[in-house]
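Key result, reporting period 2: structure in, sequence out.
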């Protein structure tokens, strides 16, 4: 997958993971795991980037004697998620255009990867 595309999608996934309630790094990773694998070394730069873009806020709270950072989506972050949902409709339309020939060939019984020749 294209690195820039994946980067943008991961940003959106992180925002979605904290959309309904504040969360912390390890929990965000666990919440995303059924859908996408993300490591701590990938997550924390994303969190910093989203914070610097004012898409999320961070606060520290004590948990079991240690400080833990909790992330909260901002109104701007929520708007970004809403915008993405609209953008995704366009992405799906583009995908449908790309695969339409494959679907037409499949419906005609032409194996994928072969070219029908006319004489």
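The corresponding designed sequence is given below.
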């Amino acid at each position: 997958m294209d690195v820039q595309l994946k980067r943008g999608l991961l940003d959106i996934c992180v925002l979605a993971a904290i959309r309904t309630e504040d969360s912390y790094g390890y929990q965000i990773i666990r919440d995303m795991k059924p859908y996408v694998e993300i490591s701590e070394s990938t997550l924390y730069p994303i969190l910093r980037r989203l914070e610097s873009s004012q898409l999320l806020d961070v606060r520290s709270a004590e948990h079991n004697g240690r400080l833990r950072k909790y992330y909260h989506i901002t109104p701007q972050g929520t708007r970004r998620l809403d915008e993405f949902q609209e953008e995704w409709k366009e992405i799906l339309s583009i995908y449908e255009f790309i695969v339409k020939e494959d679907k037409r060939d499949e419906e005609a019984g032409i194996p994928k990867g072969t070219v029908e020749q006319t004489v």
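The CA atoms of residues 105 and 114 lie 9 Å apart. The mean pLDDT is 89. This case is discussed further under Risks and Mitigation.
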